[in-house]
Structure formats: C-alpha cells, structure tokens
Structures
1.
Amino acid sequence: MEALTAAQKTAVTKSSTDRLRLLLMQYGYAEEVVLAWSREELMNKYAELLVQGVEPPVTPRAVDPEVEKQRMAHEMEMKKMEMEQEQRRIEHEQRLEKQKIEQEQRRIEQEQQREIQKLQQQQQQMEQEKLRREQEQQLEKQKMEQEQLRREQEQQLEKQKLKQQQQLEKQKLEQQQQLEQQKLEQEKIKLEQEQKRLEQEDIKLQLQERLELEKLTLEQDKLKQEAKLKIEELAAKERAQNDQTKLLKRYSDALAQVISTQPEETTDLPAYVRGWKPSLKSW
C-alpha cells in the first residue's frame, strides 16, 4: 500500500469487499480462494497488482451458473451483513451522539445554573456594595459637615485671633512710634548739644591754630637766628682754619729747609729721626 499513489490508495480503500473479490477474480484468482480472504488481504493483493502494473485478462472465462448463483447469494448475504453492521454502527454513533448531546445539555444547564448563582451572588454583592457605598457616602457627608463646621469655627477663631493680633500690633506700633518720637527728640537735643560742642571745639581749634601759628612763627624766627649764628660761627671757624693752614704751610716750608730728605731704606730711619730732633728743639 505504501508504494501506491494517492489516487490508487483512494480507489483501493473506497472499493467494497465484493468489488475487490470481483477485481481479483478478473486477474485469474480462483473464486474459492478469493472468498476465503479477508478484506485486508484482498486490499493488499489488489495493491500488489496495481504496483506491478498487471492488466486483467480481457478474454472472458466460462462461469458456472450454479456457482455464480451461490456467489451472488453470498454477496447478498455479505452486503446484508455489512448493512446490518453499518446500521448497528450508525445506531451506536447516534446513541453516543445522543448521550453526548444529553451530557452537553446537562453541562450547559449546570453552567447556566452556576452562572445564575454567580449572577445572584454578584447581584447580592452589588447590593451590599451599594449599601456600603451609601453608608460610606453618608459617613463622608457627616464627616464633611463636621469638617465644614470645624473649619468655620477655626475661621471664626482665626478672625478673632487676627483681630486681637491687629489690635496688639496697633498698640505696639503706637508705642514704638512714641518711643521713636521720644528717641528722635532726644537725638535732636543730643545733636544740638553736639553742634554746640563742635562749635566750641571749632573756636578752640581756631584759637589753638592761631597759637600754633604764632608759635611756629617764633620758632621759625628762632631757627633763622640760630642758622645765622651757626653760619657766622662756621665762617669764623673756616677763617681760623685757613689761618692754621697758612701757619702749617709756613712751618712745613721752614722744616723742608732744615730737615733732609727721608731715606728709602727702613733701617736708616732711626738715624734719620735722631738727625732732625736737635733741629726741632731749636724751634
């Protein structure tokens, strides 16, 4: 069967058992042998012939009328049995289908019952939820009313507190203004006193500056006189120094005529000094 094409497989499987017997008998198989085979053996034999490509013989063979009659009776009996089996199969399938339908019907009824119960439970839950929400709304409404009342009371208290605070602030501001006014007056008095003190200090500074100026003038005159005296003193000293210089020059010239020239050798210095000491004594 595996070697057949799809069309050949369909032709073999859809052929009835009697047709398979007739086809095999046309290929030359004996009727007794063909009648003894099962449907599976008939299909396998016919499939082998199709695979081999063997054509059935075209020459008709002689058929015994009695044998043909028995064969037809046997085929009728087989067809009847097949029809009865098919009838029983259909009835069995119908019973199974009916049971299946009844089971499905019971399942649907159970599903519907469960769905109804579920809907009833949901309805109860919705009613309970509705009642709970109404209670919550009522509680929320009461809560909001209480909150509104509390807020109004707080606002009233806040207004009173604000009014009192404003009065206190006003009093405090008035006191501060009075204190500021007193402070300003005191500052004014202090500024006037400070102004007078500064004026006195200014007069005092002017007098002091005048005295300092006079003192500075006297100091300058004194310094000028001291500078003049110093210049005169320096001039006198310079004249005296000039006189001493002239005297020393005169002495030097005199000594140059008396004392000989200093020797170059250091060993001759003592004799040189002893030589001009008597000359100095004579001066």
2.
Amino acid sequence: MYREEAYGSGSGSGGGATIPYDYSSNNTNKNDRNTNHNKPPMFNGDPEMFSWWKTKMYSHIMGMDDELWDILEDGVVDLKLDEEGVALDRKAHTAEQKKLYKKHHTIRGILVVALPHKEYLKMSDKSTTKAMFTSLCSLYEGNKKFKRLRLQCLFISMNCSE
C-alpha cells in the first residue's frame, strides 16, 4: 500500500515532487517494537522457552565478542574467585589475567541482567559465570529431559497394560 506525498510548490495541479512511501511498513510486530539490540534477551523463567532464550543469548554474546561465550562455557581457570565471582588477588594479576577478569565480569553482567531476580536466586553456584550458566542449564534442560523420560515411562507403562 503506497501513498505519494507531495513536496514543494511546483506549478500545475498538485505540483512538487512525489515520494512513494510504504505505510504498511509502519505495522511492526509487537515483540519487535521495544527491541534494543544492546540489551541481552530476557529469560522469563518458562522452561519451555529456555532453549530459545539460550539460542538468542548465544547470538547476542557472539555478536559482541566470541571470547565471552568461551568464558561462559569454559570458565576462568586462571583466576581465583570467591563465591560471588570477585577476584581474591586482583592486584597481583598479570595484564592477561586482568583482561580475562574484565571479560568474565562483562559476560557475568550480561547474564545477570538477562535474568529476573527469582531466577538468579535459583542458581546453586554463583562463583563464576560458567557455574551460573551450568546451573541454569541443568535446572531447565534437566527438567526437560526428566519430563521427556517420565513421558516415555508413562507411554511404555500404558502400552504394557493393554
């Protein structure tokens, strides 16, 4: 659906330049309207949505810096951190360790911002970003696997009773 807008004061009927504009392009998806590509995707705590959220987080983080995802998956073995992820010996770090520590807290901040407080409290280990992410994955992907196994057992028991 195009409509032409007239600009200028040219001569004749209507005068001026016309520029076609597609007004149907203004109808944006409700979910896309408030999207800020700098903010991480939010997880709402729904186990059915965890896999989708994890995929969106992967794309978001890889778009920023692929080393961040590596820290999320592999952890930071070179650093000694307390139960809240704070370095115990930060001033003694080498330049490389300082860079790693900064990236660790960058990805940690992204993960914390993407979670509601209720989900943050469910994590059993918050010492490293890897521990936090592993805790989330085991909580939500574990539930999915458990439900699938329970359904399979139920299906088998129903078939055996016939």
